[in-house]
Amino acid sequence: MTDSAQPIPGSRAFKANGPLIWGLTISQMIGWGALYHCFPVYMKPMQQELGWSVTDLNWALTIGLVTADLVAFPVGRWVDEHGGRVIMTLGAALGAAMVGLWSQVNDLVFFYAIWAVIGLAMACSLGNTQSAVVAANVRDYRRGIAYLSFFSSLASTIAIPAASVLLLNMGWRQALMFQAALQFCGPALINFMVMRGTRGSMSGEARKRSPNEPSPVPAAMKRSAFWLLAIACSVHWFTSMSVSVHILPLMQERGLSLETAVSLIALNGPAAVIGRLAMFYFVPGNSGLVTGRIAFPVFALGTLILALTSGDSLWGFAAYSFTFGMAAGVLMVVRQTSVAEIFGVRGYGAITGALASVAIVPRTMSPVAIAFARDWFGSYDNVIWILFGFTVIGTIAFYLAAAEPKAVPPN
After folding, report:
1. Could you tell me which residues come within 8 angstroms of residue 406 by beta carbon, excluding any fewer than 6 positions away?
2. Domain range for residue 23?
């Protein structure tokens, strides 16, 4: 059988630890920071100056995420057919322009419009797009995606404190202008330079493919593995976003002080790093399917620990934070690599975009749904048990998807 890490015929076999990966890593760290992670930093000063509520502000982020998911499929298809250099460069530049406009905003409707365009910029320059570039151009694509995901995940660790320093020294409008300039001088220029010579997973096929030849996405969607993987990814997205938004009020509801709760939540970051390092060193070939069979049960275990932790048990919350954070961090890599292992790298961008579009509701509405459930039950106790049930379903779905015969090795 062909080695699953073989390059696509006609592509340049970039190295998993070469300039392409490290350039994209820097681009992703800056881009995720400017276009996503720094949003909460600017909420309070915007509230104070503009008089908008927390709900008003959070709708902007929701609009951005919905837009990103809606355009994920056409963006992924473009990257498959034309490569990522142009669209990722333009997407990063568009993001810079929108952050600059954000710094001047005074009208709520205009603010929402800006975030709709930021959603487009995120879809074009972050996440699935960069993974599609790696899958199509890097010989050992699994290790390349693992490296990229590992270091890109540090974006929040760096960006939030950095944005807070800018805010304290410049004010929120000037801080955003600085980030806009950094976004243009960083990701936009880096993407243009490091992706020279890259291609899409289907570059040149439009002229050669028979009209009756099926494209990768319909072929993938005819397989139960696609829908099973969609369920597993939806569970991961839904649970991760729900817990990340509600874990602080949950801990406070159970009697922990704000300082203690924040300290316990901070364990998530180091735990994710440890999980990814374990994947690097102990999983053969950094296989997403092998890792997922371990990480999904651990993800469910972390949710179970949270459900069973009573009162203000520091050890219980610490065990939850470490276990859940480790699994959630690893599953971000699993999502990217398992698609190529199950369906091949041909059409990777469109297939991952289709998965994101299918999961648009759990990705974007989970915090609101959990808030409604909490108010309905009167506490978070029953809500966490519901989330645990979802994680069990997600684990079963992933095992079934991973067990299906693979169509072809990634080519």
Report:
1. 341, 342, 343, 344
2. 19-204
- Confirm if 256 and 312 have CB atoms less than 8 A apart: yes
Q: Which residues, 6 or more positions from 134, have their beta carbon under 8 angstroms from its beta carbon?
A: 20, 21, 24, 141, 144, 145, 148
Rounded Cα–Cα distance for residues 222 and 239 (Å): 27
Question: Helix or strand or coil: residue 138?
Answer: strand
Give residue for tokens 């993974």: 131
CB atoms inside a 10 Å sphere around CB 411 = 13
Number of domain units in the chain: 2
Neighbours of 10 (CB within 10 A): 8
Does 59 reside within a domain?
yes
225 and 246 part of one domain? yes
- How far is residue 183's CA from residue 230's CA, in Å, rounded to a whole number? 32
Closest to 119 measured CA to CA, from 56, 82, 65, 157: 65
Residues 81 and 153 occupy one common structural domain: yes
Q: Do 189 and 234 reside in the same domain of the chain?
A: no
The CATH number of the domain where 236 resides is what?
Answer: 1.20.1250.20
CA distance 219 to 326: 33
Residues 54-105 have pLDDT tens digits of 778 878 888 888 899 889 889 988 998 888 899 999 999 999 999 999 999 9
